[in-house]
Each structure stands twice: as structure tokens, then as C-alpha cells.
Fold:
Amino acid sequence: MTRLFAILPLIALTACVEPPAEVGRALYTDACASCHGVDGRGVGDAPLTLGKPVPDLTTLTTRNNGVFPQVYVMGVIDGYWRSDDPHSVMPEFGAELQAGDLVGVDTGDGRLTPTPVRLVALAAYLEGLQN
Structure:
């Protein structure tokens, strides 16, 4: 019986379904569109005031040899990949996206890593914007 309780959290984690596209779209509209533009091409309202170009988010797959870089994208949004960059002007959204459920994401090592479902939803929405 003890063994069953030990694996229940893993079963619950892997049984989660993909987050709805509406969640990702709403997060993008609220947090990203002002800089990256409604269509993700980096032509929102803020680029002129930032002093540097804003990346075109519709070419992430193209720039990564035809594969959407989900783990990298989530790391940039969360702030993990930019924590040591003093020149980054993009805000870290990790704390804001922590609220809510977790979903298992394979980050490349074959294991499911508990990841905020809202972060996964936003990355999935960005994947849908690819050219």
C-alpha cells in the first residue's frame, strides 16, 4: 500500500492534459503583445522605448533548425536563461506564472519535470505562432 501512495503524485502529474490554447493566448495578450506585437513579430508599442530590437517570436523554430525550442522558450519567459544577463530588458515572468497546477514536461532528459501549466500554455501558444 505504501508503494501506491509513493507513485500517486507521479500518476497525477502525468495524467494532466495539455493546457487550453485560450490560456496561452490570454497570457500572451496580457504580458507579451505590448513588446512583441499582437502577431509576435516584435513590433509592439514598447520596442521604441527599449532601445534595442525586440525578437520576432514567429521565427523561433526557423532559428532552431526547424524544431520549436520549448524548454529554452520557457526558460526565457520564466527568467531562468536570463538571470545572469544584466542587459536583458525582458521582465521575468516566473513568479507570475507559478500560480496554478503543474504539468509534466520532458525537458530533454526523458523525465517529466513539474512545470507550471500557465508557462506551458504560453509556450504552446508561441509554438502555434511559428512560420
Remarks:
- Residues 2-14 form the longest helix (13 residues).
- Residues 2-128 form a domain with the Cytochrome Bc1 Complex; Chain D, domain 2 fold (CATH 1.10.760.10).
